Q: What sequence folds into this?
């Protein structure tokens, strides 16, 4: 509702208000003369109070001011306007019901949802229509969908269709719904009755263009707002995994838009089905955070946090990504097992990886899966975070698998040795090697200890933990033999991390896709150097696993999406058939041009996978946050009134009423002025002649 | 008490007023100090005070030779000289003094001095003069402002003739014009020859900042100053019924005011003004005696006489 002035220039007459004020400020000259002996003090007081003139007869002044003000306002021709639906008059014309079944309509008002109320009202409207009225219906939860393809002359049929409308998790597509309704009317006039909560800030403004088209088509809009008496909602707005005790923690942020404090249970369901419940206290109109501790070992994937909020159940679940937690499994490919365990190429590596033995994994450590060359087929990107390949003679059979593993985020350590030949490496592993291998180079004569390793740069992420201690131990590692590489330039993707004091590279990194490759130009045992005997060896190996596999949860892309939005997943080359599995089973998807696309219709975890292979992608799908904002948004009829004021605006002219009130006040001030004047005359008469001086009483 | 001085040719009204003043004065003095006062007439004798050990420089004529003869000690006799204390009564006869008195005069029937601050001041001054004459102290008079003032300045004298002159001046004078407290007090300071008591009877309706510097002239003469500050309580409380044109008998523009509007501010101003007066008098160790004109005069007289 607003007030419009049709003649705003008349406001200039407000200057007339100064007249009565000045008249009342002017002091009446008293007639009685008083001989006063303390004039000294009176002059002082008057000097002090010169600026403080009191208004005479304030009530009379108020009356006069009001009278003048109302008269001036009447001259501005004020008009009171407010948006409203047009009066009924086209009951016999065609009618389309637009029913909002978006997520926010699941809001409970008592025992029933808004959708239920809206549905009942729509059905009641249809049943009250004259027989033969052509009617149609559209739902606007997610996408605008016609319940019947065309208008039908049987309202009962539409009523039955409306009665079956189910709650959706989608956002409000009001613009789409109005568009469908207008099209159903087929270019002729008619009525569109919208049953909606009009919640959220964006749904109504987005329909502005469609409202203009409706106005052009002479379609009458009748919004029926369905709202809860006190809209309130609580939801998990953020769920993030972080480091912490045990296997880490999930930090939940819960917001409460209601007016009462809430104490609600929230249950976190991990990808492996483990449920962890906590209670969160959320103040009214505020937010709270709750931290849930994750077990030491947990599978990676999409987890959900479900809040038990009865107000709007549809948005209670929030999906989020959880990395693999706990023991990091690494695959160790032993290229030179040797006759005895201690002669194995990976003897020192295995013990550095699992110093507590095979049971160490349950303590959150590293579990090495040691295998021969053929065992690389056991590589599971969802399980293994890092692969160590040590002194493998022919890596060609593993090359494709390793390359794919690294590109998806895995970490690979290539250690060389006597069995390595450059020709067998440089070809198949070209996508992974920082530079082609050249040849082994002797750095010391037989019997000598070898060259020292240069102290590592602890500003590099790999060596950062050694800044506090252990850096010097690297310098004690001596090398008698190392593989040399073809000359290469260091770039952001290829760089030398460790070298000998003579400058021969010992450890070279290459970034490949989302993963990294570390080329160790020496051996991981005592074959070519003394590194395994140094105190830095074990923590360095542990650090390698963290460094290379810290971000990786194995394979699979991690994506987030909103219900109703399209999701596209890039498929690796050679993938012919990929499927999508959602929270309620298989989801229809389209595969074209190496991409798979689908539209999730409900929140939860979606997995894109190919048969017999680890998942290609994990998608955490959540509802549109705008739908969780259940407070009333912009008014549809107000927007319609802006577009088509003649149809949707009610007006009342206030001028005559203000003028009448001004006249009444004018009469009232006349009466009041007469009373005041009479009192003044009576007082003057009681005081005697005005100019009679008062003589001092001395003799 | 004798009647008017024979050398003055008074008209009958003035003579009647002198008589009235005499009656008022006598009634007040006798009623207030009945049986309680003693003659203040000082003798020319020198009164012994005490002894002190002789020290070089003491006058030899003060040595007590008898004591030296008896005790072989040199002691000096110390004396306290008794002197007359002259009093000058300064009375304000400005135009403002012609206003606002609800005074409580002595119970001697209707008085021509009733109804104004001037009347109150004249009776009070006559009473003080009468009492001082009775005790034999020299008394003088200075009239500030006024009209028909025969002798604005009467130096302190003793005797009934002086009293008659004072009563005559008071009876004949009419309040008019400005008092010019600053000029009057400065002139008084130059006239005083020795330590004196000065009693100023005035409403002090001139800016304290103007007349307070003149008090320093009195302070230099070691004057003992007492100020009887006359005022009408109704005026200071602004207890007047309706708005009116306020004017001063001394002249100047009239001010249109409504007492109801300015009452609080006026009372605040009175407090501020009194603080200024007290500060000015305190600086010269003067005694401030507020004297509302509705206060019984005998109480004021008793307070003054006991303090003199």
A:
């Amino acid at each position: 509702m607003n007030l419009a002035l049709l003649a705003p220039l008349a406001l200039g007459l407000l200057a007339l208000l100064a007249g009565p004020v000045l008249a009342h400020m002017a002091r009446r000259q008293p007639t009685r003369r008083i001989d006063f002996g303390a004039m000294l003090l009176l002059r002082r007081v008057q000097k002090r109070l010169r600026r403080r003139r009191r208004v005479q007869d304030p009530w009379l002044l108020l009356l006069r001011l009001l009278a003048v003000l109302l008269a001036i306002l009447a001259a501005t021709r004020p008009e009171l306007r407010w948006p409203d639906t047009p009066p009924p008059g086209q009951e016999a014309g065609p009618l389309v019901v637009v029913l909002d079944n978006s997520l926010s309509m699941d809001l409970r008002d008592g025992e029933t949802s808004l959708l239920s109320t809206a549905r009942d009202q729509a059905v009641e409207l249809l049943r009250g229509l004259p027989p033969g009225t052509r009617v149609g219906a559209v739902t606007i939860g997610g996408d605008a969908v016609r319940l019947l393809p065309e208008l039908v002359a049987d309202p009962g049929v539409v009523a039955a269709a409306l009665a079956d409308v189910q709650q959706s998790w989608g956002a409000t597509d009001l613009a789409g719904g109005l568009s469908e309704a207008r099209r159903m009317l087929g270019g002729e006039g008619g009525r569109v009755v919208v049953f909606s909560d009009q919640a959220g800030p964006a749904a109504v403004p987005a329909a502005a263009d469609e409202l203009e088209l409706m106005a052009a088509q002479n379609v009458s809009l009748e919004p029926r707002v369905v709202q809860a008496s006190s809209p309130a909602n609580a939801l998990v707005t953020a769920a993030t995994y972080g480091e912490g005790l045990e296997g880490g923690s999930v930090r939940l942020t819960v917001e409460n838009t209601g007016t009462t404090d809430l104490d609600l249970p929230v249950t976190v369901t991990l990808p492996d089905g483990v449920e962890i419940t906590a209670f969160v206290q959320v103040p009214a109109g505020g937010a709270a955070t709750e931290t849930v501790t994750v077990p030491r070992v947990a599978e990676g994937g999409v987890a959900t946090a479900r809040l038990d909020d009865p107000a709007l159940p549809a948005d209670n679940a929030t999906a989020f990504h959880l990395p693999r937690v706990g023991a990091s499994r690494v695959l160790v490919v032993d290229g030179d097992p040797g006759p005895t365990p201690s002669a194995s190429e990976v003897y020192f590596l295995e013990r550095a990886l699992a110093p507590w033995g095979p049971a160490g994994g349950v303590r959150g450590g590293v579990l090495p899966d040691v295998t021969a060359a053929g065992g690389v087929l056991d590589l599971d990107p969802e399980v293994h975070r890092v692969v160590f390949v040590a002194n493998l003679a022919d890596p060609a059979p593993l090359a494709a698998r390793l390359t794919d593993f690294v590109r998806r985020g895995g970490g690979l350590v290539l250690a060389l040795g006597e069995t390595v030949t450059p020709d067998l490496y440089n070809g198949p592993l070209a996508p992974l090697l920082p530079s082609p291998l050249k040849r082994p180079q002797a750095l010391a004569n037989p019997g000598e200890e070898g060259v020292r390793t240069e102290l590592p740069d602890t500003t590099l992420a790999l060596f950062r933990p050694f800044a506090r201690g252990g850096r010097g131990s690297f310098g004690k590692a001596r090398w008698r033999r190392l593989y040399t590489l073809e000359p290469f330039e260091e770039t952001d993707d290829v760089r030398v991390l460790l070298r000998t004091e003579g400058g021969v590279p010992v450890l070279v990194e290459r970034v490949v896709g989302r993963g990294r490759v570390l080329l160790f130009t020496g051996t991981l045992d005592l074959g070519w150097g003394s590194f395994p005997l140094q105190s830095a060896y074990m923590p360095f190996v542990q650090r390698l696993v963290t460094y290379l596999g810290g971000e990786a949860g194995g394979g699979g892309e991690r994506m987030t999406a909103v219900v109703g939005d399209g999701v596209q997943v890039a498929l690796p080359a050679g993938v012919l058939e990929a499927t999508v599995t959602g929270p309620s089973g298989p989801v229809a998807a389209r595969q074209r041009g190496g991409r798979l696309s689908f539209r999730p219709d409900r929140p939860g975890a979606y997995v894109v996978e190919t048969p017999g292979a680890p998942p290609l992608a994990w998608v955490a799908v959540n509802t549109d946050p705008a739908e969780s904002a259940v407070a009333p948004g912009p008014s549809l009829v107000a927007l319609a009134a802006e577009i088509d004021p003649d149809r949707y605006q009610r007006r009342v002219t206030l001028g005559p009423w203000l003028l009448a009130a001004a006249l009444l006040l004018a009469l009232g001030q006349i009466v009041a002025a007469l009373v005041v004047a009479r009192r003044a005359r009576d007082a003057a008469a009681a005081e005697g002649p005005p100019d009679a001086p008062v003589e001092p009483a001395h003799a | 008490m004798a009647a008017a001085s024979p050398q003055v040719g008074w008209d009958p009204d003035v003579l009647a007023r002198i008589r009235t003043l005499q009656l008022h004065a006598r009634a007040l003095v006798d009623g207030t100090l009945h049986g309680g006062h003693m003659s203040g007439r000082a003798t020319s004798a020198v009164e012994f005070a005490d002894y002190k050990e002789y020290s070089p420089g003491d006058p030899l004529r003060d040595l007590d030779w008898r004591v030296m003869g008896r005790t072989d000690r040199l002691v000096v006799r110390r004396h306290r000289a008794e002197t007359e204390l002259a009093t000058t009564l300064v009375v304000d006869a400005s135009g403002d003094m012609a206003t606002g008195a609800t005074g409580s005069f002595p119970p001697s029937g209707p008085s021509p001095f009733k109804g104004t601050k001037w009347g109150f001041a004249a009776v009070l001054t006559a009473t003080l003069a009468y009492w001082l004459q009775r005790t034999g102290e020299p008394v003088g008079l200075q009239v500030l402002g006024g009209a028909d003032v025969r002798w604005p300045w009467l130096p302190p004298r003793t005797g009934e003739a002086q009293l008659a002159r004072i009563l005559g001046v008071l009876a004949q004078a009419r309040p008019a014009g400005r008092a010019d407290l600053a000029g009057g007090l400065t002139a008084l300071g130059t006239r005083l020859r020795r330590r004196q008591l000065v009693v100023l009877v005035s409403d002090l309706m001139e800016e304290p900042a103007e007349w307070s510097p003149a008090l320093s002239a009195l302070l230099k003469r070691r004057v003992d100053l007492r100020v009887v500050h006359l005022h009408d309580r109704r005026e200071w409380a602004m207890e007047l019924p309706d708005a009116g044109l306020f004017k001063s008998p001394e002249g100047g523009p009239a001010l249109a005011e409504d007492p109801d509007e300015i009452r609080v501010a006026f009372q605040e101003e009175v407090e501020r003004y009194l603080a200024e007066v007290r500060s000015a008098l305190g600086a010269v160790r003067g005694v401030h005696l507020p004297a509302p004109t509705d206060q019984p005069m005998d109480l004021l007289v008793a307070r003054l006489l006991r303090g003199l």
User: Anything to note?
Assistant: The mean pLDDT of chain A is 85.
